[in-house]
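# step 3/5: fold
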Amino acid sequence: MAEKGDVKIVASNRRARHDYQILDEVEAGLVLEGSEVKSLREGHAQLKDSFAHIRDGEAFLIGAYIAPYTFSRGGGHEPERTRKLLMKRREIDKLAARVAEQGLTLVPLNIHFRAGKVKVDLGLARGKNTIDKRDSLKERDQKREMQRALKARSR
């Protein structure tokens, strides 16, 4: 788990930045059960193949896996249940309009704790095709080579 200021990142969706072009980012709260929060504090979460969906003026996180807490009574919670996202009405309406008009997708980028509250960073994303993915990899490799050359030169 990485620490970034007062933000403690629990799980990140590294695949999202590879498969999608992130146009905008939004932070949202999550409605969770107690055993889910305890499981998140232990770092047991995965965002692979998850997405956010807006229906009836409410936002939901679908497909996120939060492992059952081992010490919970009665079996705890369902690991892949649909969880409600907490955002202001204006934000939801703005995102819904952009998703509907431009054919974009809401992808969770990471789950983190901010001031003791569980938050999700959502990315408003457009899918990349194979050529775009290759271009991104080439660009990243070129940056890495430049950094190595500069480092070697400064020695």
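# step 4/5: annotate
The two ends are 33 Å apart (CA to CA).
# step 5/5: archive (pending)
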